[in-house]
Design brief:
Blueprint (H helix, E strand, L loop, with lengths): L5 E5 L3 H5 L13 H12 L4 E5 H4 L3 H11 L3 E6 L7 H19 L5 E5 H5 L1 H7 L4 E3 L4 H11 L11 E5 L2 E7 L9 H4 L30 E3 L3 E2 L20 E2 L2 H15 L3 E4 L8 H14 L4 E6 L7 H10 L1 E9 L3 H5 L11 H10 L3 E8 L6 H14 L3 E6 L7 H9 L32 H16 L2 H11 L1 H10 L7 H6 L1
Length: 502
């Protein structure tokens, strides 16, 4: 492609990260940040293209060859996953691709790494990974200024958020102050560049479409806000933003994007990936009003906190607007364990009452649980599983505690000398991937990392094969959803410590 300024690259990670689940169970997410930055750059006159290796099913070699053949002035590697904590697990795939590109081209195509992980560890990423440059911060202004610097129109020292090597100081990376966070989202990042993607390649989460599993291919993801005011100890969401506050797009800007998705691409299933969508009541109600007016018959889902679903009027309007699922961070069945890791004002909320309140409005619940938080022991792990079985929500995600780079828990782990995946002798960054063979979660004061991981895998199997759960699914969604879940549970995740033992 002649004269291309920027190629936005979503590198391949799914097979390594999700094992056999990647074939037809895991979602294929449209690259939201890539789309936002691509549209931002085009509005400023840059020639931009997007390469989504995940959606196209490319491996590392094929992706590197495509980048080399495209020959952009800059290849931007977007290192984000399907949720905010999933950046680190995507780094190995991105780095393998960047290394292969460097070999193919002799390093003639400059590369820039953007994402939560690079923002959390910019210096280390530049020193250890095969990128020419690293971005600390959100990215749009960094990319635009870097292109100007590569053209000789701007000194590299003037590129906001850029980490780079000066010609005479190869081993001493230089870092410029990040660009200010973007406040006027409507003006600066008004939409994603969906026309640069093949939208037919994307696929919703399986549970999102339990009511119509054949509709999973009609899928998109729209950000309606950025950031979060809370400071949960296990969360790394703040790494690119460097502050704890919520910024929103206007309802008119969001609905304009939804209108386009419905009209131009026939999209019916939509994810709102905001870290904290159901928080700003005015923002939520302005959007639900417009969705109700349009009556598109959409199937939407979003994240919420347990303590943000007390407003019954808002729940009613969410349901009428098409929000059929809310994902709730329950984390642990033990209040003592929850209190042991920063979670804002969560502790005094009645979890069971909150879940029931959501379900009573016809909204299905995705319950998120974490095993292996610092105060966990065998009894509290079982308490969490017992709560999950008792709540019997329409879906549940079972995670292990990870000290993700950029989270307060990562700082604590380093200070305490806890073993981390990237320590010498560990599996490296892929060890932060929950479903990977090499997964290595945190130990607790009472349990080893592998005991925590084994309990997580046991909990997943126990929950999704539970007769009470399957009966509820059949009543709610019908026998096809039950058959789908039963097929899902035949996939057994391979774990490295089991293989070593065998």
């Amino acid at each position: 492609m002649v004269g291309l300024d920027v190629l936005m690259v979503t590198p391949p990670s799914r097979l390594t990260v999700y094992q056999g689940l990647s074939t037809d169970l895991a979602a294929i997410e449209p690259p939201v940040w890539s789309g936002l930055i691509a549209a931002f750059l085009r509005r400023r006159g840059f020639a931009v293209a997007m390469l989504d290796a995940e959606a196209e099913g490319l491996d590392f070699e094929q992706t590197a060859q495509r980048i080399a053949a495209t020959a952009p002035a800059l290849a931007v590697f977007m290192i984000y996953g399907q949720q905010p904590s999933a950046s680190t697990q995507c780094l190995p795939g991105a780095s393998k691709t960047a290394a292969r590109l460097k070999t193919l081209t002799g390093g003639t195509i400059p590369t820039l790494a953007i994402g939560t992980h690079p923002s959390a560890l910019p210096r280390r990423t530049l020193l250890e990974e095969p990128y020419s440059y690293v971005c600390q911060g959100e990215g749009p202004f960094t990319v635009a200024a870097l292109i100007e610097a590569l053209r000789g129109e701007l000194p590299f020292s003037a590129v906001p958020g850029l980490w780079y090597r000066a010609p005479d100081q190869k081993d001493q990376p230089l870092g410029n102050p990040p660009a200010p966070v973007i406040d006027d989202l409507d003006h600066t990042l008004p939409r994603q560049a969906w026309d640069l993607l093949d939208m037919a390649r994307y696929r919703a989460h399986n549970w999102h479409c339990f009511s119509d599993l054949d509709s999973r291919g009609s899928y998109a993801s729209i950000q309606t806000s950025l950031g979060c005011p809370f400071k949960c100890g296990f969360c790394c969401i703040h790494a690119p933003f460097a502050e704890h506050r919520l910024r929103t797009w206007s309802a008119d800007t969001v609905i304009d994007q939804i209108d386009s998705l419905v009209r131009d691409y026939g999209i019916r299933n939509i994810k709102i990936p905001d870290e904290m969508f159901v928080l700003n009541r005015r923002h939520v109600l302005a959007l639900t009003d417009r969705l109700i007016e349009r009556n598109y018959g959409l199937n939407l889902w979003a994240y919420a906190r347990i303590d943000t679903v007390e407003d019954t009027q808002m729940l009613e309007l969410l349901k009428r607007a098409g929000f059929n699922w809310l994902a709730l961070g329950i984390e642990s069945g033990s209040r003592h364990v929850r209190d042991g890791v920063a979670k804002g004002r969560f502790g005094n909320t009645d979890v069971r009452a909150a879940v029931k309140r959501v379900q009573n409005h016809g909204i299905h619940v995705v319950a998120n649980y974490i095993f292996g938080l610092p105060d966990d022991n065998q009894a509290s792990l079982q308490e969490t599983l017992d709560m999950a079985l008792d709540l019997n929500t329409e879906w549940a995600n079972f995670y292990t505690a990870m000290a993700y780079p950029g989270s307060p828990l990562h700082d604590t782990a380093r200070a305490q000398g806890w073993r981390l995946p990237d320590d010498p002798g560990g599996p490296g960054w892929i060890g932060y991937a929950q479903h990977a063979v090499e997964c290595l979660p945190l130990p607790t004061e009472h349990l080893s990392a592998l005991e925590v991981l084994d309990f997580r895998d046991h909990a997943f199997d126990r929950y999704f094969t539970n007769p009470a759960y399957l009966a509820m699914i059949e009543r709610t969604f019908g026998p096809k959803a039950v058959t789908h879940i039963q097929a899902m549970t035949t996939h057994r995740l391979r774990r490295r410590h089991h293989q070593a033992r065998d």
